Structure formats: C-alpha cells, structure tokens
Amino acid sequence: MEKINKKIISQSNSCEEIKADKSSIIIFGASGDLTSRKLIPAIFKLFKRNLLSENFYVLGVARTQMNDQNFRDKTKNIISNLCKDEKIINRFLKIIYYQNGQYNDINLYKILNDKIKYLDDKYKTNGNNLFYFATPPDIHSIIIKKLGEVGLNDQKNNFKRVIIEKPFGSDLNSSNSLDDELHKYLEEQQIYRIDHYLGKETVQNIMMLRFANIIFEPIWNYKYIDNIQITVSESLGIGHRAGYFENAGLLRDMFQNHMLQLLTLVAMEPPASLEPVSVRNEKVKLLKSIRPFNNKNIDDNLVRGQYISSKIDDEIVPGYREEKNVAKNSCTETYVAGKFFIDNWRWSGVPFYLRSGKRLKKKLSQIAIIFKDVPHSIFSHDFINLEQNSLILNVQPDEGFSLYIQAKQPGSKLCLNTLNMDFKYKNHFDFDPPEAYERLILDALIGDQTLFVRSDAMKISWELLEPIINKWKKENTLNFYEAGTWGPKESSRLFKNGTWYPL
Ligand code: NDP
C-alpha cells in the first residue's frame, strides 16, 4: 500500500511550492551526460529558488578519477551559465562532494557508507538519502545489490529512496528481473522510476485541463471523439546515442514509457483525488484496458521505419545506417506508428494513433483530439466541407493548446472557415516553467510518487509490447523514409478515414 503524504494533499491546491525535506542526493554516474546536462542544473535551480532544505548536500559517484575539487570545478562550468551571482554559485559548490570507485566493488560502498554517515552528521540530514541511478541500465541492479549489502537501503525513522532512469529493462524478462532485484532491497514506496516526460508542465496540465473544467469531460468519450493522435517527433538523428539505440530501437525507447504514459493521461478515468495512489491506480486500470497485440493484428496496426539520407536545407544528412556506431545492415527501427484501442465503455471503437520517430519533419510533442462530425449538417451544400473540430495539446514547443472550430467567414452567406483559439503558456504566465527534472527531483525529495511509474504500470506496458518485440525480432518489416519527412508513407494505411495531424 502506498502511504498518503498528508503534506502533499493539504497543499495540493496551493500555488506555493513545497520545500524539500532535509536530505542528500547521491548521484551514481556523476561524470555522465545526464548529470551534466540535466541533473546538476536542475538541483542548482532548486537551490537557487530556495526549494532545497538548508540541511542538504550532493555526493557524486562514478569510476572517473576526480576529487571534490575537480567535481566542483566541473559543476561550476555547468552552472555558470545559469547564474551570474558568484555568492550563490559558491554557496552551492560548498555542498558538492565526489567519490570515485568501481560500481561492482564492495569497497566503494563501504567508503560511501562512512562518507555518507559523516556528511549526514555534518549537514544534519537526519540520514535521509536520495540515490539517483544515472548510470547505464545494466549497472542499476549491481548498485542496488551493493547498497543493500552495506545497509544503505535501510530506513530507520528516515528515508532512503532511489530514482531509476529509464530504460527499465529491455523487455518483459529483463524488466521483471530488475524489478525483483530492486524489491529484494527496497519497498515500492522507496522506488522512483523516472519518466521525465511526466515532469513537463504541459503534460501535468492534461489532468488539470480535463478534471478542473466541466466543459471537456462530457464530450471526452466515444460519442464525440473520432480519434486521438499522439505525436512525439525528433528532427535530429541518433547523435551520440547509437550504442544504446542500436539495441533498443524506437519502440522500446519511446513507446514503453513516454508514449504510453501520454496515452494514459489523456484517456484515464478521473481519479478520486490527486493522491498518488489514486492517480496511479487509474493509470494502471487504463493500461490494462488497452487491446493486446498478437501475431495476427500486429501488421495491421503497427508500422515501423528507418530513416534514409536526404537533403535538408541544402545539407545532406546521413541515413541511420550511415550514422557512427550503427551497423551497415541495421534493422533497428527509428520510427513507429501504431493504432491502439482501449476496450472500455468510454473509448469503445475510438482509435488512438501513436507515432514517434527520429529525423522527422520537426521536433514536436503533441496530442490531437479530433472530434466527430456534427450529426446533421444544415450546411450540406456541395462546396461546403465541414472540418472536424479539434483540440490540440502542445507539449513542446510552444507549450499550450489550441481549439479549432468552425465560424462564419465575413461575406458570402454560406462561407465557413476554421477558427483557431490559441493559448500559449509563455504569453499568459510571466515565468519560464521549471524543467521536468526540477519538478521530479523535488517531488522525490518530498516523497510524492504521483509522477513516477509504478511497478505494475511498467510491467503491463512491457507485456503489451512483448508480442511486437518478438515478431519484429523474427521478421524484417522495416519501411524506409527520407530524413526530414513525417515518416514512411506506409503509416497512412493505419487510417480508414482521416490522416495524421499534422501531416
Ligand atoms: P552515460 O553514457 O553518460 O553514462 C553515465 C556514466 O556512467 C558515465 O559517466 C560513466 O561514468 C558511467 N558508465 C558509462 N558506461 C559504463 C559502463 N559500461 N560501465 C560502468 N559505468 C559506465 O549515460 P547518460 O548520462 O547519458 O545516461 C545515464 C542514464 O540515464 C542511462 O540509464 C540513460 O538511459 C538515462 N537517460 C539519459 C538521458 C540523457 O539525456 N543523457 C535521457 C533519459 C535517460 P564513469 O566511467 O565515470 O563511471
């Protein structure tokens, strides 16, 4: 059972941020890309916004040889762009520490145990520790085992929590093994599986939009919605992630987590409250209602693709197989589109089209809700084609939403046109929304698991994808698309009527 955090619920309607409890963050993989680009900036911004406790420190851990001073210098380089106030920077650097060692060497953890005890005493953190696993996925179970061996998983009137970065395994089996290993040493309430998409303001706003307004829910069902389309596209190629991506492919990289999480938020039933257990129960209920895939329906409902070289803005961009560290005959997919159905009363017969890919036309994360035609058109004149109403939720860029409705165009009596009611966060709210990692790290320090993925949700999403992974392992069903387009033309066959939005 998840515990109810009274502090979260009592303040959930408040605009004031909750300050983190006294604690430390211990980052494994502190020399890596994620730590430099996301974690250190996020922790620093929380520090600068005074949302961290005065009783707080950061301890970086990795194999790379560095001492505290080297790690502070590296940290300084990262945060200097974020703040011009030397005093704040120096105050932050003072609470930064580093320990190097081998992840599978018990001596590292003995040293860590002593160092953490010393720093916990020095900073009076009450022994509260948040361990962040920013390491390659195959290292996660080694670290948890070793932490367990030295007792750093033991909560005694304090907390020991672990944030785990995706991917959570590479298939159902490996994900189950990782989960079993975690549960040997930790309770589920100690485990925070992070999907940074869930920390984005506009993703969180899906729930607010749906459940804090009366006007959307009555039409949020099969009676009024024709189809829902979720697009998460990247204009860039695979970059430096080829080593990981070649084995993973896009289905594992995007669908198991971000895409299915977006789907649950847009389709789940209203939770009884904002309490983490209520929200996460509804998500799991929804995931369980997704129609399973099997050998027979996979080809009809899924399309996979890989980008080939193309000229974009007078520049030739390489195809996936020409990228560094990618096999010349690689069959890894860089694009997936799928038609999903949710077999419950609300969504009966409504297709959910999900697509995601690399090197697509533009970088975009968007949910398009396409409404049905009016039941009877009084404008049924040959030349009047009534466009369907649509509500577009823009997760990025241009965070906000747009409602497209029909309106009379001045002039001719029968002339209709589509009107766009546009709302952009940046035009309305006078501050930059916090980065997803800021939100999520703060939540983990407070003990709010709402935006983190629960064990059962993760398992169900792997179960859903498992038949697809297995079929694609055996059969080469790859289609090709030119870099800079919206993906393989075969993806349009998923539609009986209609088309992708945007095309
Ligand atoms: P890196 O490849 O930069 O690795 C992080 C650190 O882990 C490295 O600095 C290195 O530190 C150590 N490491 C790397 N390879 C090995 C190895 N084979 N054996 C042991 N240690 C190794 O990863 P990222 O920082 O990019 O990502 C960390 C985690 O976050 C991964 O699980 C990734 O999937 C996830 N993630 C990353 C994102 C990103 O934007 N980078 C986005 C979303 C998730 P040292 O050699 O000093 O020990």
From TrEMBL:
EC class name: oxidoreductase
Positions of transmembrane segments: none
GO cellular component: cytosol
Listed SUPFAM superfamilies: Glyceraldehyde-3-phosphate dehydrogenase-like, C-terminal domain, NAD(P)-binding Rossmann-fold domains
Pfam families documented for this protein: G6PD_C (PF02781), G6PD_N (PF00479)
Keyword Nucleus: no
GO biological process, one term: pentose-phosphate shunt, oxidative branch
Reaction catalysed by this enzyme: D-glucose 6-phosphate + NADP(+) = 6-phospho-D-glucono-1,5-lactone + NADPH + H(+)
Domain spans labelled Glucose-6-phosphate dehydrogenase NAD-binding: 26-205
EC numbers, comma separated: 1.1.1.49
GO molecular function: glucose-6-phosphate dehydrogenase activity; NADP binding
Function (record text): Catalyzes the oxidation of glucose 6-phosphate to 6-phosphogluconolactone.
Family: Belongs to the glucose-6-phosphate dehydrogenase family.
Listed name of the protein: Glucose-6-phosphate 1-dehydrogenase
Organism for this UniProt entry: Oceanotoga teriensis
